[in-house]
Amino acid sequence: FKGKQKKDLRQDEKRFADVGGCLKAKEALLEIIEYIRKPEVYREIGVRMPKGVLLYGPPGTGKTLIAKAAAAEANIPVIFSSGSEFVEVFAGLGAKRVRDLFKQARALSPCMIFIDEIDAVGFHRGSASVMGGHRESETTLNQLLNEMDGFQENDQIIVVAATNLATSLDPALLRPGRFDHKIEVTLPSVEERRDIIKIHLRNKPHSASDEELLKLAKIMEGASGADLENLINLATLSAVRKRGTQQKISMTGDDLIQFALGQKQTQTQQA
Ligand code: ATP
Questions:
Q1: pLDDT in tens, 208-219
Q2: Which of 12, 18, 56, 61 to mutate for ligand 1's pocket (most ligand atoms within 8 Å of CB)?
Q3: Are 141 and 115 contacting, i.e. CB atoms less than 8 angstroms apart?
Q4: Could you tell me the distance, in angstroms and rounded to a whole number, from the CA of residue 65 to the centre of ligand 1?
Q5: CA-CA distance, 3 to 100, in Å (whole number)?
Q6: Are the beta carbons of 185 and 63 closer than 8 angstroms?
Q7: What lines the ligand 1 site, CB under 6 Å?
Q8: Residue 228 in contact with residue 209, Cβ under 8 Å?
Q9: What is the distance between the alpha carbons of residues 8 and 31, in angstroms, rounded to a whole number?
Q10: Are 53 and 160 in contact (CB under 8 A)?
Q11: What is the pTM of this model?
Q12: Which part of the chain is the AAA+ ATPase domain (predicted)?
């Protein structure tokens, strides 16, 4: 049983080959992970290791996926957390959770801490969204800043945070020695959309050609990686529904294109 569980976990592991596009983000994260793994090499040549990386961009563009994949490529564990977990109504609890998170990371290092929705704690202090008594999130933010200031290169911890709202982040978070590496993760271009579609079709029965997939990618203008993953999943479900689970299914390029056009039409009617 143990063996099976291990195998399943590995199958679930995402690598860079599972991320379409996002080249800049992949490169930047790999470089930083190199620092973490060999801090002494970089120290010798006088390079300061970045402590934090901020991935920002629209929802569903793969920010979480890239962080996960980078850690897997580097073979280091990731501790997942979310800014919203730190924003607690009980005084001091958010700050305590931040402290516990870094304590856990120090025990696991070299490792990555991933904080999704950093904006939940890192809103610009004194901005309209925080005014009116969100002191608790301020205490939490201060704790996060303290922890980041406190750890040293030999702690071998990298903090990767993600947000859709980079502009409203507190400038204190973005100062050197904190999240000083900012990487934009944009919506995919047409070629990137095709690559993402290919990734999600990898284990699905289909006979679509490259040309047809490019046509599909063009139809899906404005879609995020998450939208494309959802499209392929729904198209496969629909093919199974039509042909039944007893029969072998194989989606043609045209099946996929017609399905996408149908979805687009429904969305326009609903809008
Ligand atoms: P949010 O800002 O809403 O938290 P996110 O940017 O972190 O979103 P993910 O959670 O990483 O996005 O993406 C959701 C899912 O969409 C992924 O698990 C993956 O299946 C798919 N996906 C998104 N981007 C890509 C991509 N570039 N390549 C392949 N799959 C992608």
A1: 999 999 999 999
A2: 61
A3: no
A4: 6
A5: 31
A6: yes
A7: 19-22, 59-65, 116, 162, 164, 196, 199, 225-226, 229
A8: no
A9: 29
A10: yes
A11: 0.87
A12: 49-189
